[in-house]
Amino acid sequence: MRRREFLYTASAFAGASALGLPRVARAQAAQTAVEAAKQFAGTEISIVWEAGLQALDPLNFSGPLWQEATGIRVNVIEVPTAEMFTKILQEHRAGTGAYDALNVIPAWMPDLVRAGALEPLDEYVDKYGYRQELQTIAPVYRDNQMMFDGKIYSFPDDGDVFILYYRTDILGDPEIQAAFREQHGYDLPVPPTTWKEFDEVGAFISAYTGNKPYGAAFFRDPPYGQFMFQERFRNEGGRFFDPETMKATINSAAGVKVFNDWLAENEWMPPGVQTWGFVENLAAFLQGDTAMTISWPPYGRWAAGYGTDEEALSWVPRSQIAGKVGYAMPPGGHPQLAAGFALSLSASSRKKEAAYLFMQWLNSEEISLKRVQLPTALRDPFRDSHFVSEEYMSRWPEAPQYLAALHEGAVKGLLDLSIIQTDRYEEALRQGISRLWAGEDPQAILDDVAAQWDQITERIGVDQQRAAYEAWASNAAAYPS
Amino acid sequence: MKRRQVRMAVRFVVAALVTVLFLFPIYWLAIISFKTPDEIFAYPPVWWPEQIQFANYAVLFKDGDAVTVWNSLVIASISTVFAMVIGTMCAYSIARFRTGGNLFSDWLLSNRMIPPIVIVFPVFLLFVELGLVDSFVGLILLYTAFNLPYVVWMMRGYIQDIPLELEESALVDGCTRWQVFVRVVWPMARGGLFATAVFTFVFAWNEFIFALVLTRSEVTTFPVQVTHYFGGQSNFWAKIAAMSVLGTVPIFIAVTLLQRFLVRGISLGAVKG
Amino acid sequence: MTDRGAMRGFSDGRRTGAAGARATPFVDRNFKYLMIFPAVAVILFIGLFPVIHTLMISVQNLTMLDEDTSFHGLVHYGRLLSDGRFWEAIGHTLIFVVVALPTELVLGLALAYLFLDRLPGKQVFVALLVLPVVVSPVIAGATWRLLFDQRYGPINQVIGWFAGEDVTILWTVDPAFVYPAILIAEIWQWTPFMFLLLLAALSNVDQSQLEAAEIDGASFWRTFFKVVLPAIWPVMAIAVLIRALDLFRLFDVVWALTRGGPGTLTETFSIYAYVQGFQQFETSYTAAMSLVVIILLAITVTLVLRRMEIDR
Fold it and tell me: Which listed residue, of A202, A237, A288, C131, carries a Cα 20 to 30 Å from B136's Cα?
């Protein structure tokens, strides 16, 4: 009887806190995890993390903090993005138990689940009372990056979204505006909202200022360009597949237009932009060499000079443009929710309990709010509370607009394509982009990519893939509505 | 006389230029490891940093990445010792008893010719079965096997150069075959052992494909670690350079010290050093 | 030459003299086999077993998501025949062999001649020149990526000095430059190897023959082809063979520089096999591909060895 009583009281308390005491509830998931994890003090868990900046979070912040609180050491295994999927699946095959927790790009999650590489989390979520806090993750991530086949396999942990960053001082320059109006016959839009406008503004700025600065620059390196393509292709009205036949339609007019527009843009963008990835594009923007760009959220923080005096960020060129940056949706209005990361538990882990608790703790309201504010790391706001955090809004003068743009992105954003063996489709696309830079004909390349996609679909099984595609395409965030 | 001196001077200058040209990439790699981030991403590129600083190395030790050099050392050393011992035994048998005839030694050598990529896949599956993925034992075994044909080939040549009389008189003195091998042949082949071991070691030290596929976290070797810094948000040139230098300096020292063994080792014994 | 040292009486295993009484008979009787046993066991384990395993897998249908071990016949081999990307990869590999090998040979020979006669500081030069050879190839690739970087690398900078304006050559993207980039890296690393071997070989050429040729008034080239080349041929043949096999398995440098791109333009066989096997998890298909290459390679090497008649 006593035991029963206790359980009743406990559940009543939990219910009460869920309804009326969000602050307490917030503290709870993190605290529960820490308390429960203490029994594993002295062990070591390994977590796969994207190599580079992303890994600074567990290396310099969350790892040490967790060890201090629980006595569990966190071994961070840095793996380059291009190798993460391979390594995780290889490890699953090998089953050595070398990885306990995983960072998973949500678009891969279904494949990893089908291969049996991920452990379902429902049981742990219930056991450690985490359901409540999972619900407060921003809907687009919560609804699309967490479950597969009705089970929870990962905790969305990174609100990656492509935002347009533009120089308010340059686009707002009266002289430039006047000259633009004279040449194009309409007011320079601040910021441009269609690709036509964007290209006219960009080309104009390059020409007018003598490339000081260039009108814009983008990610063009295929691994990044691939996301840019997915976004722009869909904003131009493109569809990946014919839902009836499952024939690839990536070589449609929309696709060819994107490729042709890219080639035309390269003419007024910085030379060598074809190879630009995250850092090259970042350096150019922060140094004031480009007036507009589209990228992940950290650009906004660093452009404002937030935290860039930290030693770990010393490689980021000092921002010359703090206070001069505006944030907006990319042309077309629907940004790519590009990549992102979610936390999953490796099915071959031998320390599942401890690894799970670490994940819950990382992902909790309390700790995640700290993590998305780390200037060095690359985790971006992904919970409803992050977007309205007073603390975050006070970080730099334009932070409220920044968070509002991220929030809008989370509402209007487009999901990465996620079907069966998504990476093979993306790989074909990446190769297509690199062939574009090698000078081949856009239509011919896309026809070839479409043929490869069809081939992949056939090998997987048309019916099976159609079902997966239908499920994905039924999301509101699959195509612009 | 005069002409000859001019010729030599010209040759000297050309030789110096060529050497500088060939060493420049190594210089560039090394100098980047001492640069600050601003200097690495400076345009135009900076050829000499304002101040030599070791922060790029410090971070490798702080984060524990430097341990991969130790992993490489353990794996390369132990596999070299194994390969040398069992390879020399085999070489002795072939050199002195013609065990297995030409066919056997041809087959041994042909194993050396298989491209690693062809073998790495089945080896991966095999190691999965045996639980040897991401273990020291696995890589040591693999490198031992991969070096064996080379060791046998090289040591056979050296052993054939050892005068037979010594072994015969040891036998007459009542040594067993095994004692003859250990007490007479092994010490006599010392020079050859060094020459062969250098290259066995270099191979294991530098190997990439096997290590890429067969390591996870515990036994990552330094070449694999270096590739971990590619990609992500950027190529982390500072870490790439510093880690590369950490892994390359030991091998430079070893090779310079053992310079005189180099030619014979490198040529599969075709050039007698 | 194989018979050198294997003298009469020694090899028959019976002439153990006084030792026979004390030695373990079994060990001495089977000594020669016991001595090769560990080596053979290890090589069989790592070399032969996987090949057989590969053969088995290649007639099944294992993929990333499918663990189908039933017999599928030769479908994967059939697919290989019509897989353009595979044959292109073989073609790219051969391009690297055909261009890099002669270049390394000629440059190595020229260098060897440069250092052949007395030269102040020769030892130091040679010691320094050999360093590229022992750099891990993947590190060499990374190094060249730094050098070739279109913005932060010194190569475009130096070219810019000569051109008198900033140049932006995209060494790892532009189809006109990716092959030169990879080849330069490859040639940089392995020319010293050729040099070292050929220097040793040239030093061993019989001086009296050279002097005789000089007295006859033979030209440099005539002396080279009639006297020097035959003398250094055995070493050169070995060097060429080693390098050809290494080039055929080219992976690390390409991996670090272009990963086979742009598109699949520089994809070598090794890279394609890695992509199929470990990124796309086409397990059975990769197995079939591996076997085909082993067989092609075995045939080629045997034929080449016959022709070159290398002293073994």
Answer: C131
